[in-house]
Amino acid sequence: MRSLDETDIWSEGIEGVDVPGYDRDGIRAGIVHIGVGGFHRAHLAMYVDALLTAGEARDWGICGVGVLDADDRMRDVLHAQNGLYTLVRKEADGSLAPRVVGSLVEYLYAPGDPEAVIEKIASPDTKIVSLTITEGGYAIDQKTGEFDPEFPGIRADLEAMASGKPPSTAFGLVVEALARRRERGTGPLTIMSCDNMQGNGDTARRVFTGVAQQRDAELGKWVAEQVTFPNSMVDRITPATADSDREALAERFGLRDGWPVVCEPFTQWVLEDDFAAGRPEFERVGVQVVDDVVPYEFMKLRLLNATHQALGYLGYLAGHRYVHEVAQDETFVPFLRGYMDAEATPTLRPVPGIDLDEYKDTLIERFANPGVADTLKRINYGSSDRISIFLLPVVREQLQAGGPVDLAAAVVAGWCRYAEGTDEQGESIEQQDRLADELTPLARQERTEPLSFLRYRPVFGDLADDERFAGAFRSALESLYERGAAETVRNLT
């Protein structure tokens, strides 16, 4: 049994496991990444590792940063393993393709030493701050889409910075570092969101500029004029690591890793070329560097992510627990493809270089990969944020155009039924949503007071007032009550 903290592991190698073929000594961290989770380690860190393997990007290593108290576990694992971890690609035939990734060359834990994080970002070596802080983690007012200075933690950060104390959120830490860069003449950098939402760079711009303006008007102006915020589209299914994944790595390859990452074979990253202080040559390792990310964003969010929502709630209610079970269910596949073809695709712009029919076929194949074993519980996490970002824009565009909305309405009805907190067998469903305390009572109330759920305006706006959508929602929900999810889906297709 070998461990990643063994210094001789590279000279001896590990049978069946790719290991970095480059010398990690002397790699400088040009990227500071906030939010080191599974997706970051299966995506951005993997691309940088590929560049290092090709003999490039030795000034573009990654310093990971944890800002949450719960990030102490990631800190401990990465420190024990010298920043190394195993990325395990799960093939559809059940085979595993592990690679040890070496691009994370440092890790800082903000709750224990915020000053170290601020100084790292303020360092002249740092050219990019990248982020995976989840769709709901940005300080944005859901009604206006603008910066929300009352978002949890923001006001406390502003007060801390005003009194010379270190902030604690990702936004405060970065803004304090930007203030120091401006004062010292270090120059601007790029803030690169890798979160799964449309216009992620534009959203980051609004938040970081807003915090900077609240701290100091001149700093806010400097950030707005000098710091760049490229938009990007990111895609790789990365289920949560299970104990069985650790055990499989140990049993099949004799490698002990405290926190490996598992992922599907597919990966895609479309990135806007807008960098204030340079960037790695990402295009050398398969990244699509483009002038306009928007068509790719729409394609991914409205096809892949919204379809995840379509299979997540209804599939769970029907008794499935994994994505591949739903995608292999002949009752559900026509429903999923019907949503993509009839409701989502008409809202898309032309996507350069992409055959949409082929892309949709690939999505079903990816979802059906049993090796990934992605849970419905994971994709149903944060429902109110995900439905709002992935599905409801499709609904609104279709309503405006007079297009069909029945299948999307059934997805929302499925979420409502799921949000009641029990499945069709009467088993409890744990609700993992920031608005669960408000939405679960409304979902239960829906049985006696129709449209209670849909009238929750912070999520649905005025959709309850649209007779066509509200009617389709109620029709699907009544079918779920009377016939269950499988029969409801079958009748809709």
From TrEMBL:
Name the catalysed reactions.
D-mannitol 1-phosphate + NAD(+) = beta-D-fructose 6-phosphate + NADH + H(+)
Which PROSITE patterns does the entry mention? Answer: MANNITOL_DHGENASE
Alphabetical keyword list: NAD, Oxidoreductase
Entry EC number(s): 1.1.1.17
Record domain Mannitol dehydrogenase N-terminal: where: 30-283
Where is the signal peptide, in residue numbers?
none
Is Phosphoprotein included in the keywords of this UniProt record?
no
Q: Name one GO molecular function term.
A: oxidoreductase activity
Q: Start and end of every Mannitol dehydrogenase C-terminal domain?
A: 292-480
InterPro entries referenced in this protein's UniProt entry, alphabetically: 6-PGluconate_DH-like_C_sf, 6PGD_dom2, Mannitol_DH, Mannitol_DH/Oxidoreductase, Mannitol_DH_C, Mannitol_DH_CS, Mannitol_DH_N, NAD(P)-bd_dom_sf
PANTHER family annotated for this entry? MANNITOL DEHYDROGENASE 2-RELATED, MANNITOL DEHYDROGENASE DSF1-RELATED
Instruction: Write out the similarity annotation.
Output: Belongs to the mannitol dehydrogenase family.
User: What name has this protein been given in UniProt?
Assistant: Mannitol-1-phosphate 5-dehydrogenase
Species this protein is from = Pseudonocardia nematodicida
